Amino acid sequence: MKGGDISNETSPRIIVVIDVVAQSEIEETRKFLKSSTSRKVTKLNNQALSQLWLLANRYGLSVELAGFETENWSQEDLDTVMDKLDRRGGNPFNYAELYTDIDDFIAELPYRNNLKGVIDLRGRVARYGSWGIELENL
Questions:
Q1: Domain assignment of residue 1, yes or no
Q2: What is the pTM of this model?
Q3: What is the C-alpha separation between 95 and 74, in angstroms, rounded?
Q4: What mean pLDDT value characterizes the chain?
Q5: Which run of H or E residues covers position 94?
Q6: CB within 8 Å of 52: residues ≥ 6 apart
Q7: Is residue 23 part of a domain?
Q8: What angle is formed at CA 12 by the lines to CA 7 and CA 18, rounded to 5 degrees?
Q9: Residue 76 sits in which domain range?
Q10: 66 strand-pairing partners
Q11: Less crowded by CB within 10 Å, the N or C end of the chain?
């Protein structure tokens, strides 16, 4: 709060990579001389979603769902997951954003002053430096 104006205050944010909360498989479609790959969500990790929802409510966090184009995710995939969770009534995410590349995403992290951490899979969490968090360590 600056100068008595609460509109300047932003809630702390965590970013969750979609692979933490969803299991997926790659689908390859072939058309005459062209092939394309995409991801299809096969199952949601309800335990992780519940933990994120409780965490967001308890500490007043803003939670962003993130995916990467280089891993064959699309904004449509992220929006589909968000819509499904909204219909269930237990959506911990406030935002969903598709980033082109994980390296571009990491380069942008120092400029987010309200960022508390990035939650990702164990094998990739070290790439985020001090922002990297495993869900099990929350």
A1: no
A2: 0.85
A3: 14
A4: 88
A5: none
A6: 16, 21, 63, 92, 93, 119, 135
A7: yes
A8: 125
A9: 10-137
A10: 17, 97
A11: N
